[in-house]
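Changelog note: in this version the structure field was regenerated for every chain. One regenerated record is shown below for reference.
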Amino acid sequence: KDPTTVLFGGYAGSFDSERMLHWLYVAGGTDMQRKYRDQTDEIISMPLFIRTAEAFLHSRKPVRTLNDLKGLKLRTAGAWLEMSKDLGAAPVTTPAADIYPMLERGAIDAVEWGTLYENIPMGFHKVAKFVIYPGIHQPCAPFELVINKGVWSKLSEADKKLIEMVAKLTTLESWLVVGQEDAKALEFYRKAGNTIIELSPELQYAARKMGLEWAAKTAKENKYPFFASVFESQQQLDKLWEGASGWRTVKTRTVSAAPPPAKK
């Protein structure tokens, strides 16, 4: 299969969901996706829904560092299946219905599935003590709407514009809702007795480096007509946004740690 879809869907080397939204809607990403799907699959495509970063793991064992990942029996899928193996994990893929019982009886050590919020109804936190973030395997996860070209061609221009507007609104709304619910989910897990772990910077850097090296290698091989141009476009946005946190984000303390306001 054409791995160009991985670039549109997010992978270990991709940027976060905010940058992905900027790339899709104001840096040409949506147009590239439309052209790619049109020429390779003869369908009409546009973004529809996006996740924030997924949870990295619900795990029976604590995982913080590269060393902790060694030999970890991890349920995953997609591009991360091979990448995690290269980082020392022992990944497996399994149908959704089998994940919970396998995790419960220890046939697997850990699972990656969705975002913190999306994982609550799956119940993984009941049989795996550790909730681990960020989702280095999936920093963002855009979905897409695909429409038969024949059906699309019969729609009026007004209806086409309406569908595009609704798809865009749905995508932006999903980013807002999932982001808010993820924040609530962390508190849910704490109250449920789970231990929350943030991955070490070393492991986060290693995963991103591996993802970018995979993408650069695939682009250089030039086996897929759109891969290199899509990757280059995303790299240009990444370069443009270098250091963005410096001019976009004011450094703050947490609310609980902030000093009280000065008395007048």
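Spot check on this record: The chain has eleven helices and eight strands. The chain has one domain: 4-239.
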